């Protein structure tokens, strides 16, 4: 029992995690000395690495996983693919990975690369008034100025993500009457500049509402361009009509063979109705299964346990994923319940430094660490499973300890970290020594 003035570990974590998140912002390892000292290496079509540490299985004691087995390997990469994995060849003429642990490259699956202060002068968040609509009014004032150098700032933020081991992001990009299509075009320039070392998928995001500011013509135009998802935000609060907004979003996605990723902050009755209506629409249109996501979806954290399980089961059956920032204020999302019902859970930094939030570090490995702390996942096995939050569900070992990554033919997207195993990497938020994307050495 807590006495007056004391606080539980979980409450401490909930209250302090956002403050913790700001600690690593200034760290950027892109200029650091790494195992890749030859400046010409990144231009080669073929790479050979020796002394690469890979996980090979679990060690058990009385049925419990007590350690992760690893060994050193020799790996060849060609034309962006892993072409050879063999027993270590310590005397081979190859890049020496020095025993660093190789893991799947990390993925940030919810971020706004198009509107950020990162790479520009420091600005703290201003006092908010008027809720989300108040923030829309603020953005309408700010976006013309933000767009002046948004390509440069997006590139700087990509470099921050890379320094934390991330080589892929799902970025929402403003599509609304103020920016029209300019925010998208500016971000596409940044991604083109970084295409050899960074991958992305884009969400056409009506930040100012679909109908509230008449974003419809711009969304229709964006849907014809090189984007992957149709986005949305709080259809009841912003547009005043759940069905009208969701119907439009679903139809636009179907017409252009896109996915769906909707921001849902509403935590009351309207939030639940939006979730249930979207589930119904996806079930009516099976081609959207596996391509539909709800970002944030805070209403799940407000439901009673029985209702959480019921909704999670429906989400799992409809193959609708949840993209959750971790944590968010004092709200703890029911991630274990979502996993139990086979709901795909992804995470991202959302904001790094912008007018919404200034606490983002760029590290999704830190997100995995916070999740492990919040949900008591402190054993070797559970820590190793927590890594999937940073890698978008790719793990070196399956639940039984069978090696499932890497395999010959896999895309050469990988990080080398200072850790003995996945569990340690999550628990210690281990330093990233090198990042390779599509066979290209990033650093």
From TrEMBL:
<feature type="domain" description="Amidohydrolase 3">
    <location>
        <begin position="220"/>
        <end position="443"/>
    </location>
</feature>
<dbReference type="InterPro" id="IPR011059">
    <property type="entry name" value="Metal-dep_hydrolase_composite"/>
</dbReference>
<dbReference type="GO" id="GO:0016814">
    <property type="term" value="F:hydrolase activity, acting on carbon-nitrogen (but not peptide) bonds, in cyclic amidines"/>
</dbReference>
<dbReference type="InterPro" id="IPR052349">
    <property type="entry name" value="Metallo-hydrolase_Enzymes"/>
</dbReference>
<dbReference type="InterPro" id="IPR006311">
    <property type="entry name" value="TAT_signal"/>
</dbReference>
<protein>
    <submittedName>
        <fullName>Deaminase</fullName>
    </submittedName>
</protein>
<dbReference type="InterPro" id="IPR032466">
    <property type="entry name" value="Metal_Hydrolase"/>
</dbReference>
<dbReference type="Pfam" id="PF07969">
    <property type="entry name" value="Amidohydro_3"/>
</dbReference>
<dbReference type="InterPro" id="IPR013108">
    <property type="entry name" value="Amidohydro_3"/>
</dbReference>
